[in-house]
């Protein structure tokens, strides 16, 4: 397959502001005027070139950001949403109705897991959780009621890589949509090019990169994005998870530095992963040569952005993990906080935070240990300083 460079694709998207401004003008209106009643009526039936109806439907700045995101994912079209969960719930509800089934990876973000496990059954939608590392389990779980296969490209929090081409073959054979959450690996992995039908991001994370807002997006075919915004039946139009235009403008600016940030996050994460491994710590990082999925990620990833900035270690016990995290915050390694993709390092214990929605026995079955500490590695100019500080904290916490 021809190489794809998402950074050049975004770079080549030029939008001028109203007065030739280098950034597009920010839309500060919820509603828009029409010169003729005929065009207004038409806009309720389909998109009319150059016309905007109402900001929950579309507005210019959200459109510009969506176009740039479509370029990031090599998609025909995209739509921004007010959160990653807004993107996930809208996609699911656009595709699935009462009586339908979803086959989902079992190691996914806790909020998505809770939505699938606790909320969707109220609407008559059933989700089967499987070990996506074994594509044969996906095949076994699919029935004629299955409408969607759901996976994360790099799973949260165990950082397992989904073999998107293999899962896509199953989805295509059964005419099922493959939806991939690519929050952990923008630019690194391009799921649509590997066979996925829909890509979702929590832009709250790497794409925005400054932990100052919550936002999401959906990238797919023009047909699917148009269906979401249909005034009579579209999930985003009717459920209303619309992104505020001021935020869309700031995210668009941040998107243009994503390639540099991803490179640096990945470079720093690889350095730390190798240092931790030398110390004999159990490290989860797909970019490590010793990782069982090293060959797979090298096959799937785009060149030049590394393997992302997410890594996890096993501190041995929850007590040691807590001690380590408190010490690291005191030593200015970063913040004891959930979320990821921030310019500073963030760390948390998934079993007791972002994955706590997953029942304990299921956490055990998927290999999520009590002492697992997940790191989102920051953009530190000199990562060797953080490495030395973390080693000191590991010694004090009794891990080394
Ligand atoms: N997907 C993943 C992988 C996440 O980590 C998160 C949030 O942590 C979400 C989706 C949900 O995104 P948001 O918090 O923007 O709604």
Task: Write a concise keyword list for the protein shown above.
400 residues, Aspartate Aminotransferase, domain 2, 14% strand, Aspartate Aminotransferase, domain 1, globular, five-stranded mixed sheet, binds pyridoxal-5'-phosphate, 15 helices, 2 domains, alpha/beta, seven-stranded mixed sheet
Structure description:
- 38% of the residues lie in helices and 14% in strands.
- α11 (258-278) packs across α15.
- The longest helix is centred in the C-terminal third of the chain and has 21 residues, at 258-278.
- With 400 residues, the protein is an alpha/beta fold.
- The radius of gyration is 21 Å and the shape is globular.
- The strands form 2 sheets. The chain has a 7-stranded mixed β-sheet, with helices on both faces. Strands 8-9-12-11-10 form a 5-stranded mixed β-sheet, covered by helices on one side.
- It folds into 2 domains: 6-255, 3-Layer(aba) Sandwich (Aspartate Aminotransferase, domain 2), CATH 3.40.640.10; 260-396, Alpha-Beta Complex (Aspartate Aminotransferase, domain 1), CATH 3.90.1150.
- It contains 15 helices and 12 strands.
- Pyridoxal-5'-phosphate (PLP) binds at residues 83-85, 109, 111-112, 152, 156, 181, 183, 202, 204, 214, 216, 339.
């Amino acid at each position: 397959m021809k190489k794809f460079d998402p950074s050049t694709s975004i770079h080549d998207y030029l939008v001028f502001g109203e007065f030739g401004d280098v950034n597009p003008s920010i839309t500060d209106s919820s509603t828009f005027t029409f010169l003729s009643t005929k065009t207004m009526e038409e806009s309720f039936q389909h998109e009319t070139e150059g016309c905007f109806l109402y900001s929950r439907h579309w507005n210019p700045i959200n459109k510009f950001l969506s176009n740039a995101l479509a370029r990031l994912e090599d998609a025909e079209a995209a739509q921004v949403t007010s959160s990653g969960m807004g993107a996930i719930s809208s996609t699911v509800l656009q595709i699935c109705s009462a009586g339908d089934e979803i086959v989902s990876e079992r190691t996914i973000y806790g909020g998505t897991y809770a939505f699938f496990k606790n909320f969707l059954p109220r609407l008559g939608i059933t989700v089967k959780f499987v070990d996506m590392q074994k594509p044969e389990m996906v095949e076994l779980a699919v029935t004629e009621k299955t409408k969607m296969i759901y996976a994360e490209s790099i799973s949260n929090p165990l950082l397992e890589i989904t073999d998107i081409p293999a899962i896509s073959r199953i989805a295509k054979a059964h005419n099922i949509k493959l939806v991939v959450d690519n929050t952990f690996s923008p630019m690194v992995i391009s799921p649509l090019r590997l066979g996925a039908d829909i890509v979702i991001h929590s832009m709250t994370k790497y794409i925005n990169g400054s932990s100052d807002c919550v936002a999401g997006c959906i990238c797919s075919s023009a047909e699917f994005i148009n269906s979401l915004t249909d005034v009579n039946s579209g999930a985003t139009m009717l459920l209303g998870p619309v992104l505020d235009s001021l935020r869309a403008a700031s995210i668009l600016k941040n998107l243009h530095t994503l390639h540099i940030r991803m490179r640096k996050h990945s470079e720093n994460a690889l350095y730390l992963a190798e240092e931790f491994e030398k110390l004999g710590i159990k490290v989860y990082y797909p970019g490590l040569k010793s990782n069982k999925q090293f060959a797979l990620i090298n096959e799937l990833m785009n060149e030049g952005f590394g393997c992302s900035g997410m890594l996890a270690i096993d501190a041995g016990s929850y007590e040691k993990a807590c001690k380590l995290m408190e010490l690291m915050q005191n030593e200015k390694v970063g913040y004891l906080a959930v979320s990821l993709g921030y310019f500073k390092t963030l760390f948390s214990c998934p079993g007791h935070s972002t994955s706590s929605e997953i029942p304990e026995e299921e956490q055990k079955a998927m290999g999520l240990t009590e002492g697992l500490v997940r790191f989102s590695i920051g953009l530190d100019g000199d990562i060797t300083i953080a490495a030395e500080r973390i080693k000191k904290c590991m010694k004090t916490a009794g891990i080394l």
